[in-house]
Fold this protein.
Amino acid sequence: MSVNSKKTFCRICEAQCGLIVHEENNQVIKIEPNKDHVVSKGYACIKGLKMGAFAHSPDRLKTPLKKVDGQFVEVSWEQALSEIGDKLKAIHAKHGGESIASYMGNPIGFSLWPPMVMTMFLKAFGANKLFTPGTQDCASKFAGGERLFGSANDQVFPDIDHTQLLIAVGSNPVISKMSFISVPHPMDRITDIEKRGGKVYWVNPRLTESAKRMGEYVAIRPDTDVFFMLGFLHEVIERGAVDRKHVDKFMNGYDALAAVAKPWKAERVAEVTRVPAEQLKQMVSDYLAADGAAIYSSTGVNQSRHGLMVYWLQEAINAISGNLDKRGGVLAGNSVFPKFDAPKEQLTSRINNIPYINSTVPAGIMADEILTPGPGKVRAMFNMSGNPLLTCSGSERLAEAFDDLELFVCLDIVRNETAEYADYILPGLHSLERADVPFYFFTMMGLMPTRSFDYTDPVLKAVGEARDEGLILRQICRAAGKSLADSKPLQWLSNISEAAAKLPLVGGANSMDKLFLSMMIRSAKLGGINKLRKHPNGLLLEPNKPGDYLGQRVNTPSGKVELAPADLLARAAEFEKTFADEITNTQSLKLIQKRERFTHNTWAHNVEAFVKGDRNTNYLYINAADASERLLADGEMAKVSAGGRSIEVPVKIDNDMMVGTVSVPHGWGHQEAYGLSVARKTVGANVNIITPDGPDSIEPVSGMSHMNGVLVQICAA
Ligand SMILES: Nc1nc2c(c(=O)[nH]1)N[C@H]1C(S)=C(S)[C@@H](COP(=O)(O)OP(=O)(O)OC[C@H]3O[C@@H](n4cnc5c(=O)[nH]c(N)nc54)[C@H](O)[C@@H]3O)O[C@H]1N2
Ligand SMILES: Nc1nc2c(c(=O)[nH]1)N[C@H]1C(S)=C(S)[C@@H](COP(=O)(O)OP(=O)(O)OC[C@H]3O[C@@H](n4cnc5c(=O)[nH]c(N)nc54)[C@H](O)[C@@H]3O)O[C@H]1N2
Ligand code: SF4
Ligand SMILES: [Mo]
């Protein structure tokens, strides 16, 4: 066998870097960054380059597993599918579609086809309950997009290559790359802002790896960004920097917005944000002086109690200062695929009538949806590429909930912690085994400063009996006697394509994915798969055009940007109370999240190289002053408690943490992961045992879980 070198792109994070995979005999020999890729130009991080370790993990599932008397045993696909189909059919007949739910995790969200099948699968049963990590990372932006710009998929991003001023709030590109803007190697492009005479501010409770590298650091008390934005907005308005003619032409609600900002002088908000008034005013001066400026916030803010409110104020500032739709300001994404209309019907959960967000149920009420008796109680759950037991807040109640299910099926590449609660675990594909196009933030939302498109064939053959998740869901649907998306023609197409795929000429195990990808590519007027195969380094698309959004593509019924959405105005009435609460808790410790170079949510901890030495646990990161007040020394075990629950982790003294702020990275606590040979030997603790869950814990309207700025108590363990 000779070595084959295949070009593909990484589907671990939003950067989607171009890679070259050298493979022999279906084994990855080496992965290199593709220096000819039109966007990533030779950049890739350690996780993308080590992807072979995930694909070839000895823990990969190779056959379906069924739990029998508390033990998992291998079963055939025929048996697994027919038993799951029968069970599902019975649950559906007895309890209806509302008793069937799914959690669709992060990794497979970077592929286009299986998530689409998941929606068709749920629709087959008249089921609406889809949970995703969206309410752990970005639903505040979806809710904001709906209100300001007319749709969750209408989002803006900084014009990073032309901006003269970037204010990055709650973002750490050195480690995480970025979100809602696809930029491989973002720090090169951010450093260029300074090189062309511009400026960068990092607003963060932690002196991050990014802030250490360049720009000016602005320390902010966690979960007070909403007051920072109010102070900023107040200053912009007070300085008369708003062009009313421009605003009135393209926006509604300016006066109501200005009234919200009125009480929030820089000196006042500083009492809770701890950003000195002078520093805030200087930022406003720099922002207003720049020819093209952008305020951008990300997951650190989204996960606080006020993510949606921050988003609102921030985009209102960008809009009224003339930076929306301007070169160097923030640009509105232009999708690659034709935009589809989001369903107009606003669904609500049976739990407190909590609204769905972007067609998903907030994950913070997943345990409630499963445990609360009555019509609509979830009885069957399909977890595809997710590890909610570790990644959603309130892990202990979730464990109880998963135990309560009548049918729990996990589709994963390994047997993770959540899968321990499953009745069946079905082996899915690693992304290198899947044909793909870029994921929906590119294709449906156009969140790309450099507009481009890629197609990849599978680079590896599926291991063992692993199957494409789309195919698995289609087969379960058939086994339960239902039609995909409740459409007989679609199910017929699915059956035909499955049968045809077995013919030697057609080849491959699943031709419907190709058919579908091909249709999508054609809808974007990019030819077909064969045409894209001629562009293995990616295809550059027509660049973004500042000035093509306002008055032209705004999706609200008025055609204008809505600066004062009614439900956000109503919530703004609570700012005084929130401010008073903040004043009372200024002495308390607040917990924030932290991502690290060698981690990726839960699943990178099963790679030996990533958890070597002292990387085999998470830590409590705490400032020396806060530690000594609690008589904690480096390396000692600390007890971290919130809401009556606690975890124990070793202390790491870290003066990059702002006083009053501590961090415990998530994704740990693998001790009972019997299917993960490496992760199981790690010793960290699951921080989501102590993050709050349930209907009162999530942000109203956006449904975001509260994972940042959680008040905690800390003592020696
Ligand atoms: N406290 C706290 N909690 C958090 C966060 C935080 O900052 N703080 N961050 C949140 C964020 S941003 C996110 S996105 C979520 C992530 O939450 P999840 O999506 O629930 O968790 P992941 O660890 O990403 O793992 C998902 C699983 O997908 C599997 N997998 C990988 N590739 C494939 C594939 O191609 N097919 C299939 N079938 N399975 C695959 C992996 O083996 C792994 O078991 O966690 C959230 N939780
Ligand atoms: N290495 C690595 N990279 C990843 C991931 C990973 O697990 N590991 N996960 C990926 C995923 S799923 C996502 S969603 C993205 C997220 O990536 P980003 O959206 O870039 O967000 P984070 O890296 O989570 O950065 C959050 C920052 O916010 C800060 N922060 C915390 N609380 C607050 C607050 O209240 N106010 C302010 N202003 N800042 C705050 C934190 O200190 C941190 O520096 O990263 C992706 N990239
Ligand atoms: S930055 Fe993201 S997309 Fe690029 S190689 Fe790393 S994990 Fe993959
Ligand atoms: Mo995420």
About this structure: The longest strand covers residues 645-653. The chain has four domains: 4-55, 65-132+370-437+455-534, 151-335+558-570, 587-716. The chain is about 30% helix and 15% strand.
